[in-house]
## 1
Amino acid sequence: MTDDNNIFTKIDALVAEEHELRNKRAAGEIGDGEERDRLKALEVELDQCWDLLRQRRAKREFGEDPETAEARPASTVEGYLN
């Protein structure tokens, strides 16, 4: 069971990792490719978290159980803009 607070905690951790990656890149500790690949993965994970929160909010708004919301696959979440 995932609640909104757990999702926000995950988002905070992903954002912190993003900042850490950028700092490591600036310090020369990692290369462009490594930073770019991990940032892309973080972006996908963040999109999935935000999508799950939106699903939960919508279910609550329409009297449904937010616990029935499920994280969607990256291919679905990333396909919204394409």
Note: The radius of gyration is 15 Å.
## 2
Amino acid sequence: MDNSDLYKTIKAPVEGILYKDKNSKFFGYAYPVSTEEDIKAHIENLKKEHHSARHWCYAYQIGTENISYRANDDGEPSNSAGMPIYGQIQSFEVTNTLIIVVRYFGGVKLGVGGLISAYKTTAQLTLDEAKIIEKTINKDFLITFDYKNMNTVMRVIKEKNLNITHQKLELDCQITISVRKTEAESVFNAFDHLFEIKIKEI
């Protein structure tokens, strides 16, 4: 079995995991995300919810084949917060994941080493609570055909047990399917050689 098209992510948000160090409180949050818009929305919401906190440090990784990531110290000493959080995303081998650690300062300075340890531990405890799932990297195809060819298309979809994500069935029909990357070529070929039926990757 070819598993090169599998990746790990978290199934659902984890919120408010508390870690304390020398009176400072660190609250860990993890969210499944797929776009930078999702990420901004979660950060804005937490800034409203914890408006009296001192720092909202975070790290994220999105993408499966083209990875993009960011680590943000939000005013903590350079590399003392964002990178330790990102290190845990790497350690748990998850992607499409955002971790935010909200810090309330307790009056005692932790020093850079203490901060690195606290942010790393909070991120780790938060991911420990998350349900990590495996998903497949998929390719989406648009199949276009005349209504009279509906049975032919549906037969292939049923035979190959394909997942329809969208369909418009009128005189000219369009069906969007989502296919595991490792199976994409054979699915494409199954439709491509059919008469009067067009398939293209989207």
Note: The helical segments are 36-49, 82-91, 111-129, 150-159, 184-192.
## 3
Amino acid sequence: MSNGSKKYFVHPTAVVEEGAEIGEGTRIWHFAHIRKGAKIGKNCNIGKDVYIDVSVEIGDNVKIQNGVSVYRGVKIEDDVFLGPHMTFTNDLYPRSFNEDWEVVPTLVKKGASIGANATIVCGVTIGEYAMVGAGAVVTKDVPPFGLVYGNPARLKGFVCYCGRKLEKIVGEDEEHVIFKCSHCGREVKIKKEDYQRYLREKDL
């Protein structure tokens, strides 16, 4: 099924409100709900029971697994993976009776992956190609290529573009520690300040 002349797929049980923008090649599956003003890029996969809130921005080639809610204030860049039932928030001081609450933005940068059932407390940035472990509770920024897990999530290492953990340091320059991936052979530059944070947090 295509959506009339539009080149994307919407399952008959899904709700796409008027004013939502959906990119070519995107697929929206059972019981998903896309609110007005949401912008979803090309070639995305929006799984069963996903909720995309008003004015949320989602890039190209994003995979959102079943049961994820992306609330207002969250921005998702290209090539991001959101695992089943992971959770975003957008309010630091939630009360059911607050009328003047403030949306606190969250940014998930290009290529990052967030594992199943992880919780992302609003106000953080998940860096490029970072990996958030299943069930993690993220309360502060995750650096590019950072591997975090636990509650609260701690920086436990770094991952390659391919997702494997980086183990081998092959050099450094003025600003970076340079790792080489044992799986795909690519070199990844990690900022020295992020590597120092890892040394502080790895045994916590």
Note: The longest helix spans residues 192-201.
## 4
Amino acid sequence: MIHTIRSFVLRQGRISNAQRRACETLLPKYGIPFKREQIKLESVFGRQAPKILEIGFGMGETTADIAYTHPDRDYLAVEVHTPGVGSLLNQIETRGLTNLRIIQHDAVEVMQHMLSPMSLDGVHIFFPDPWPKAKHHKRRLIQPSFVNHLCKLLKQGAYVHLATDWEEYAQHMIAVLNNERLLYNTASQYANRPAYRPVTKFEKRGIKLGHAVWDVIFRRNSNPSSLPETALNKAD
């Protein structure tokens, strides 16, 4: 059971007419309504292929690029904010993406109620809210109970890819994932950015200002006792 995590705040942000129309006309086509029962991802996408969950896709540019570049994989994208949902819906329609679907709902509840054990080949969580103030750290998405439940949804060998531009949060991510014995770090500490994760506009602006970005990539192991001690402690 995931301890209650409210890692987002629903703000009354500006939504464009195009985004509003997309939510009205395209969400029934490319969206999956939230419900408290498990779904079969193979039935949703109509095929057998690797299934990747993306949590919090912002305005969706990166998500659309990844899905376009990897048509052999299916992507389930979860987001709560309506402008971003509308933006990604328009990109799905314009680019003819058949391997991308959206659930507009709290990702924690989606994980708890809609996804079945060992159904995912990967998880992307790029630039989640770092909640930088110490009194707000409890609102961070990456928490032990969240990661533990996430592991139950991963197939053996599946990966968890996190990225952040907040160094203290990156350290927190490493610590939480390293303490989950069903996961092991694929790098000695932080991973190099994989080619499949494009550099976002936000990231490019930050790099020009001298800001760094940290990628954290772990994999699921069904028998952690079989891992060498060095693999279990890479991120220490």
Note: The longest strand covers residues 154-164.
